[in-house]
Amino acid sequence: MTDKTPSIHGEWSSRFAFILAATGSAVGLGNIWKFPYITGQNGGGAFVMVYLLCVAAIGIPIMIAEIMLGRRGRQSPINTMQTLAAEAQVDPRWGYLGWMGMIAGFLILAYYSVIAGWSMAYIFKAFFGSFFGTDGAEVKQMFDNLMASPIQQIFWHTVFMAITMQVVMRGIKGGLEKAVRFLMPALFVILIILVAYAMASGSYAQGIHFLFSPDFSKITADAVLTAMGHAFFTLSLGMGAIMVYGSYLPGHVSIAKTTFFIAGADTAVALLAGIAIFPLVFANNLEVAVGPGLIFQTLPLAFGHMSGGWLFGVLFFVLLFFAALTSSISLIEPAVAWLVENKNIDRQKACVWSGTACWGLGVAVVFSFNVWSGFKIFDKNLFELLDYLTANLMLPLGGLCIAVFAGWMMKQAHAEQELELPAQGFQAWQFLIKYVAPAAVFLVFLHVLGVL
After folding, report:
1. pLDDT digits over 222-257, tens only?
2. Which of 125, 347, 375, 439 has the most CB atoms less than 10 A away?
3. Which of these, 31, 105, 54, lies nearest to 389 by C-alpha position?
């Protein structure tokens, strides 16, 4: 079926191009901003081991399923799920899974772009030496000043959204593929440079010990669920991005082998980020469990006092920007693809419409940090509400539905046709996607709802 129904949007030129694009979608702020701080909060090595196990048992099977659904449907996530539901002769309301993924990606990009704008602002702060000689109070004040300024945040949010939409507007091979062919190798090169510097920091061994020496006495049920949730979210599952990228995958490419490469690269980036960050934290006697402020409030303090801090501060925030951009272009792609398929407009107009709408919601997110900070829904400002709604509710539900559809609704013959796995390999995947992954994601879902 896949070879007979090519995507109307085009295809990746090669398996390698798809790997770069899907890895770019997966690699983002979650790897470089979130993974180090949640590792610090949950005791280090033992948490990392649980996280790696969850990637293998939950993340990889669901990613295989999502890519498979995308390639079989060959359309935007909404139209793909409607087509596959008809093919499997099941309830057509499975199409709502595509809607949920597309909307989740759109909502995530609205606040993701704002955070990416912070990274762009910090590139220039590092470049002009703003971190040099600062103390903790000054670094905190620097971040607070940015949060209090809607003009600064809107400016950087606008620049980032404009760059994102320029890439997406150019299409599969002219935009997405060309961008990731440059950005992903550059991201890895910068990470390796930062790791090399961390090795010379004097606290490299301490950082490595913290990251890879497990102390299981520090693992709690909450830490296990956090690791499970992060393994799922860091692979960009349940938001339509991997499904729509899968729809551009040539029919002859092995989905399973490709997924292992993507998950491996994504995990490597998270681990390399930890290897680069924790030695710097220990070398500067900083707190590993500081939380979300680790990147924007703690590391600038380290960069401001270490040898070569100017250069490595610039490199680090360029890295953060690259990671954000490779994810952002995948977050908006499902909406653009759907507009092209259903509203009879060209790709440029679809990008303008979707990009403008997302930018407008992002402006509201900016205001939630300052002029609208007193406006709360369920005791959350707009940024917190969107983050909670997407990461804690929509994505787990989307992942659960993907696992259920691929494991229980889709005809086994169709799944075997797409995956082309040896019998034992297919049976192993089927067991994980039918039983292990849904149960694990359901536990995460109950946890975020406060039931567990």
Report:
1. 788 788 778 877 888 888 889 998 998 988 889 999
2. 125
3. 105
